[in-house]
Amino acid sequence: MQTVKAEVITIGDEILFGQITDTNTQWIGAELSKIGIRVVRKSSVGDTEDVILAVLKEAEQRADVILITGGLGPTKDDITKTTLTNYFDTTLEINEEALMQVTQYFTRRGRILSGINRQQAALPVGSTYLPNTRGTAPGMWFERNGKVFISMPGVPHEMKGLMTDEVLPRLKKAYKTPIIFHKYVHTIGIGESNLAEKIEDWEDALPPHIRLAYLPSLGTVKLRLTATGNDLATLETEVDTQIEGLKPLIQPFIFGYENAELVTVIGKLLNAAQQTVSVAESCTGGYLAHQITRFAGSSAYFQGGVVSYSNEAKMQFLGVRPETLDAHGAVSEETIREMAEGVRQRFGTAYGLATSGIAGPDGGTETKPVGTVWVAVATPESTMTRRLQLGGTREQNIHLSALNVLNMLRKALLHEENN
Amino acid sequence: MQTVKAEVITIGDEILFGQITDTNTQWIGAELSKIGIRVVRKSSVGDTEDVILAVLKEAEQRADVILITGGLGPTKDDITKTTLTNYFDTTLEINEEALMQVTQYFTRRGRILSGINRQQAALPVGSTYLPNTRGTAPGMWFERNGKVFISMPGVPHEMKGLMTDEVLPRLKKAYKTPIIFHKYVHTIGIGESNLAEKIEDWEDALPPHIRLAYLPSLGTVKLRLTATGNDLATLETEVDTQIEGLKPLIQPFIFGYENAELVTVIGKLLNAAQQTVSVAESCTGGYLAHQITRFAGSSAYFQGGVVSYSNEAKMQFLGVRPETLDAHGAVSEETIREMAEGVRQRFGTAYGLATSGIAGPDGGTETKPVGTVWVAVATPESTMTRRLQLGGTREQNIHLSALNVLNMLRKALLHEENN
Prior knowledge:
Chain A has helices spanning 13-16, 24-34, 49-62, 80-87, 96-108, 115-118, 156-174, 192-198, 200-204, 232-250, 262-273, 287-293, 311-318, 322-328, 333-347, 394-418, and strands at residues 4-11, 37-45, 65-69, 92-94, 122-124, 128-130, 139-144, 147-152, 179-188, 210-217, 220-229, 254-257, 277-281, 302-308, 351-357, 372-378, 383-389. Chain A is an alpha/beta fold and 419 residues long. In chain A, the strands form four sheets. The first copy, chain A, has a six-stranded mixed beta sheet, with helices on both faces. In chain A, strands 14-13-15-16-17 form a five-stranded mixed beta sheet, sandwiched between helices. In chain A, strands 10-11-9-12 form a four-stranded antiparallel beta sheet, with helices on one face.
């Protein structure tokens, strides 16, 4: 059994200058982790030959597998391929298989292969061609002194396709690796420090081959248990036993395990009860509906929603009474109650969710400062309302408003289930 | 004038294992770029002391400023502070100012300072305390042999607050840097290679101190011109002159400059015309409304929308006729036309947008495969419809559907403006 170390190198000025978000290396890290290859370092460098050569050399000294993304585009600012050609002291030659692939790519789209794109099929002699069916830049695989170098385009869906179709299967074949087993526990409604204090004794008693990490996001904290060993079944049992010990300490805050999402947990509860939901959104402005509908299968329990940005829309589509708006305003317990009940009734769903607040950065008043948000859940039995006082940016306040009303729905559904 | 080189180091197993998205380094790169400090490398390493020590040493040899994020939490897996203490061969001591800050942080939230959080106020002797008003982990500033090391928490809003309040002002004071001037041109509706071919001659004629980069995202391509020199006004004029030469080559595809967003460009056009818009969403499920409302000020032109996931909702809230749904289905030109016209009429807005399609991964048929999407824009004069055939994931198809209908609205508004 080997411990295989990987490094990921991303190439591109745009990443250093902060002009694009790098989502590639996160995905690569997760995929390698699943096959027992451990990413020990990630580096980003610019489109400059000597810097790329230096980072390749460093990585070669530390890691077994070096994955490189970016800098393979057809435009002049992309120099990864020529740099790799120099690094391996070889030359570029048109690869016939790659040329056919690129030609087909253009033909299928009714386009003519231009000179600039024909050059995409030129590969360093000695490298193995990895077909990219989703774009025009081929992947490349190099081996030298037992080290593997893989070059892939930076466009996320092309890189993911190449990894899935070519790179991961080849790596699995090339290495026998120790088993790294991760399991996740998802919590909501409790901060990282409070969580740490509640589970301190449990954490101290973990055996050395099981590590715990806190992964906080806005509004939620994920716990990751990582076990390393030789036998998957044993590791699974050990981790599950530890989680059984953890549960009683923080039960009300746990909403799921593994890759659970708050919204899909709710979807399962709704499906099990054969119930449906609709949403009335003011301050979340469509974000709440989007959170629900970004998951396939949501149409089984989600009927739809109204984004009632104006008072007219609140009255016309949700039946909020003009007297209520006049007397209490759009951001009030009275209005949110009528919004939730109105959307529930008009969509004919079992549950109705509503949000109304001042997401910011403007629009606050002395009595209702920015971050004042009312949320409500109307159920077949009653309507629950809650006032939040949030302190984030517009984006954060929108996100936290949605999380809060979804967690209220989750609790209501669990309560139903237990009755 | 100095060329100041910076490196950014992120610390945390969770980044290597791919469990969280690193948005910090993008933001840091952009902010440093604005004050003329050039990020030359970004590295991510795990929570392991010897690896952190090694990457600090390497960075110290290459860069002038080393920014470190992460690993400052109160929990046991966070070791950045003790590692920095060892790196600078010093000891930890409670910093009274930091202790007061942490205590106040807890008091304001009605919580008691626990032992684990009291330790947050312990700082390496010799470091400068950088107050973090948004959390419990202070920032730290170290200087040695003319190199600066800055340690910040990894929680994005805490890091951003520290950078804005403390780090950037201190860096601006510490260095006189060359001026790096960026300008962006945003395009939609044309791919990277096509764009490159259209502007090839222009690109070849750029002077050496102005560099061009293509920054493609899903559905859009951003062009970045980067000019380096001594005088900001000269650089601005030079870049603007180049952009004037670029415009005629790709005018129909340009939707904005600088930090323009498609939605805010549309918002400005609507405000100028004193017009409003509403949206009827099926396949985009709230995403389109969210794209509009995530910008402050959208309430001036956005009245609201309906997420009509079910056929009932399409009939009840948008007035789509049952005969239309029966004869043509929800994903059809006839239905999308009635959705756009219905939402426009019921919200009383000048424009009505609509989307209906099969976002996937399931739900496709032979005649309407996954990725079939109809979009429509109803204007005071007429209704335009368009059929898209998308090939991405659910998430990508939702995004591209929203972009397409927004770009249709943009063109309709420009057309109005020119009449």
